[in-house]
């Protein structure tokens, strides 16, 4: 057979092309969503906007259990997959681990002190599943674990700080990994059992729940690339299967909350999805715009489309994975399908849109290889850094503030104008940065201003902003080499002293910065604050 270019083969030979919306419809959607920004000059993009967020806007900071708690085996806590991974020599730079981390399990008062000093309205933290159920199942319940979270929640409420609780921030009980982890469909009921217990136990006081943190990272980095636990390297199949289970597990937990707890507890529940903004390499070239749209659908849409739209995966994904699978000689798409019943169970299972955002990438079309099978190659595009923006302590995470406004607008248009909480946003500095983190102040100022533009100018319903993070902590594969904290933590000192960085003072004064920053007397008052607090340290 004469050599036929792959692109043509894709278009000519597949049965999927007739069953799903074709590329042009996606393109139209993208142009509609982005049209307002496509002619913005670089200068306009960077202009500063003065204004305020609406009344009741929720300012907060974040953490997660494995990153801060330490006490990895205290009081009957069971091991998680992160304990297993980090304790294996060579896994993390410097062989560091979360064994002690910030020791927050023993230092709640110090964490409260920082939160109060910041005057935040909310604190996002996660529950360590194996601290509550050491082997992942209810019969193993540890009252000590429950007591710890009760103390944390009660302490926050006593200081008028709203707890925002993530039920799963990556630290699966090892005993459940031994059953196959998220590849095992039984995990849907097992996770539901854990969440049901948490609603019953903490839901009288917790009114803001997130099921999973960044399911994309769990599925792709955990089961595709195999970089994070459980380190499964199966890039063509496992991420799709795992995501399928995660979406069903999320929906099940949402319904449990809805059916059993909402009426008496009156809280909200959602899922924290991560999304970079993806800008086309050239907004005037159709296929580059299409590639950027596809990238967003493959990352954010993978989870958001079923949950916020119609119970099903985005057309762009069904089209791409279906076609590639067929060209690979498979009889079924590697992307599993939901039944009609499952679709209606999944659709609408979130009360608000929670998004974690750090950076922007530039996408361009590329026809990628068929072998080996990979979620990544299924995208048919390449991504690059936004080279005009400042680099940060993490490669590939440039500070591209304007991307946040575009992302928020995209979410508004794509998902029917939901209420949006930015549940993570922040920047890394190297671990030597103990006080002077002006780069972080610049990052927060510019990113928050873009969120403000989205709210104030574009009418996006931005309801809250959570700075990542409260303090330097165990940064996963980066160990302690970088810190995202508003507070520095001295990890060489057994007392883990916490000290505010310059950015902590900035974040504390954000109200002033955004509303009346032109008045001179206020400016000197702010500088006075910075100076008077600069030696403050929590021991
Ligand atoms: C994770 C956070 C982490 C941050 C910076 C996010 O993807 O959800 O736990 O602190 O990245 O590494």
Automatic annotation (TrEMBL):
Active site: which residues? 424
Gene3D superfamilies to which the protein is assigned, alphabetical:
Glycosidases
GO molecular function terms here? hydrolase activity, hydrolyzing O-glycosyl compounds
The protein's matches in Pfam families, at most eight in alphabetical order, are given as: Glyco_hydro_1
Entry-linked InterPro entries: GH, GH_1_N_CS, Glyco_hydro_1, Glyco_hydro_1_AS
Keyword line: Glycoprotein, Glycosidase, Hydrolase
Task: Give the EC class as a word.
Answer: hydrolase
E.C. number: 3.2.1.21
Please verify whether the record's keywords include Hydrolase.
yes
On whether Zinc is a keyword of this UniProt record, the answer is no
How is this protein organized at the quaternary level? Homodimer.
Question: Belongs to which family?
Answer: Belongs to the glycosyl hydrolase 1 family.
Q: What name is this protein filed under? A: beta-glucosidase
Q: What is the lineage of its organism?
A: Eukaryota, Metazoa, Chordata, Craniata, Vertebrata
């Amino acid at each position: 057979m004469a050599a036929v270019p792959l692109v043509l083969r894709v278009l000519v030979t597949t049965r999927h092309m007739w069953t799903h919306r074709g590329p042009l419809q996606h393109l139209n959607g993208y142009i509609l969503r982005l049209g307002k920004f496509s002619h913005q000059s670089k200068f306009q993009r960077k202009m500063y906007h003065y204004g305020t967020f609406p009344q009741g806007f929720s300012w907060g900071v974040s953490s997660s259990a494995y990153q801060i708690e330490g006490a990895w085996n205290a009081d009957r806590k069971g091991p998680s997959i992160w304990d297993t991974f980090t304790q294996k020599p060579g896994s993390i730079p410097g062989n560091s681990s979360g064994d002690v981390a910030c020791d927050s399990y023993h230092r709640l008062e110090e964490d409260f002190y920082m939160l109060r000093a910041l005057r935040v309205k909310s604190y996002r933290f996660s529950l360590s599943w194996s601290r509550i159920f050491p082997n992942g199942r209810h019969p193993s319940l540890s009252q000590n674990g429950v007591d710890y979270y009760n103390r944390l929640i009660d302490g926050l409420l006593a200081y008028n700080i709203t707890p925002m609780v993530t039920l799963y921030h990556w630290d699966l009980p090892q005993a459940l990994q031994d059953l196959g982890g998220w590849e095992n469909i039984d995990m849907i009921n097992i996770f539901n059992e854990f969440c049901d217990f948490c609603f019953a136990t903490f839901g009288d006081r917790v009114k803001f729940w997130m099921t999973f943190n960044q399911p994309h990272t769990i599925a792709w980095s955990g089961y595709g690339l195999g970089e994070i636990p459980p380190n499964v390297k199966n890039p063509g199949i496992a991420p799709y299967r795992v995501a399928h289970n995660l979406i069903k597990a999320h929906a099940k937990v949402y319904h449990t909350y809805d059916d059993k707890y909402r009426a008496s507890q009156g809280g909200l529940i959602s899922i924290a999805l991560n999304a970079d903004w993806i800008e086309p390499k050239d907004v005037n070239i159709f296929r580059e715009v299409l590639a950027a749209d596809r990238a967003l659908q493959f990352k954010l849409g993978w989870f958001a489309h079923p949950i916020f739209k119609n119970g099903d995966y985005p057309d762009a994904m069904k089209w791409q994975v279906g076609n590639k699978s067929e060209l690979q000689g498979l009889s079924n798409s590697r992307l599993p399908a939901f039944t009609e019943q499952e679709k209606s169970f999944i659709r609408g299972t979130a009360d608000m849109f929670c998004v974690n955002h750090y950076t922007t990438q530039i996408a361009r079309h590329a026809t990628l290889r068929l072998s080996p099978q990979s979620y990544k190659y299924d995208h048919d595009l390449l991504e690059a850094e936004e080279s005009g923006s400042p680099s940060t302590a993490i490669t590939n995470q440039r500070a591209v503030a304007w991307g946040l406004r575009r992302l928020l607008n995209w979410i508004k248009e794509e998902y029917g104008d939901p209420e949006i909480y930015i549940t993570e946003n922040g920047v890394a500095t190297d671990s030597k940065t103990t006080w002077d983190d002006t780069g972080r102040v610049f990052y927060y100022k510019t990113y928050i201003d873009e969120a403000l533009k989205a709210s104030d100018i574009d009418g996006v319903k931005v309801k809250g902003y959570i700075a990542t993070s409260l303090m330097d902590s165990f940064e996963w594969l980066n160990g302690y080499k970088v810190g995202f904290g508003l507070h520095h933590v001295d990890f060489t000192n057994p007392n883990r002293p916490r000290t505010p960085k310059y950015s902590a003072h900035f974040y504390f004064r954000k109200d002033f910065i955004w509303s009346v920053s032109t008045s001179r007397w206020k400016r000197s008052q702010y500088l006075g604050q910075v100076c008077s607090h600069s030696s403050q340290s929590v021991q």
